[in-house]
């Protein structure tokens, strides 16, 4: 069995949240534990959605309410402490999982010695029928390790992981924009194994704001800090640091419209 871990904050759309929750309730292998962390005060509309599921599904849902917004990483750490199962499926509050997503991941855990299982995602903005790009990631653990020196090797909302392995690696730590990437690196650096399902298992909602967050001076500062951290850990060589950092800086300085085209045409399928 597995738990589902989701974080939601006040800027989310109630309809998107409902679609996301429904996609996880409609899994071919259903969960017995759905943990949702409210990262700070929510709107009445979001509260209405959560209260509906809380009253409709009995003890299936655990709604954890935080008084203040603490950020995604810390919210997920708090949520993990409430998860009843060793395997935890991450889910974002505006994405949509395919019905057999968790079944496929559970089969991988059953048949392989791995600690993180992700998969390919289809990116869309308005409609599932209008997929704008597909983001695939390396499949085997060795490929994932090498790829992680350059880019994030997992699509965060698609992953299922072992709680014990995540905790042993230090769980999510404060690193704006890169909390999940930093966690995967520390896990891989401690010889935990990963795998990515090559087929699409989730639809990820993207748009103007999604790519805008990946640009500008504040983002570049955090990018530089993160890449320097990998270098200090001796996770990357000097050459790998340079090759993986400077092209990202250039892309972050582009106007958002051009950055969107760059991502969709060159970094996606």
Describe this structure in words.
The structure is a single chain. It contains 11 helices and 9 strands. By secondary structure, the protein is of the alpha/beta class. The chain has 2 domains: 2-206, Alpha-Beta Complex (Spore Coat Polysaccharide Biosynthesis Protein SpsA, Chain A), CATH 3.90.550.10; 207-269, no CATH class. Strands 1, 2, 3, 4, 5, 6, 7, 8 and 9 form a 9-stranded mixed beta sheet that branches. The chain is globular.
List keywords for this structure.
single chain; nine-stranded mixed β-sheet; alpha/beta; globular; 269 residues
Summarize model confidence as the mean pLDDT. Answer: 92
CATH architecture of the largest domain: Alpha-Beta Complex
| Structural domain count | 2
What structural class do the secondary elements suggest? alpha/beta
In short:
With 269 residues, the protein is an alpha/beta fold. It is built from eleven helices and nine strands. The longest helix has 16 residues, at 217-232.
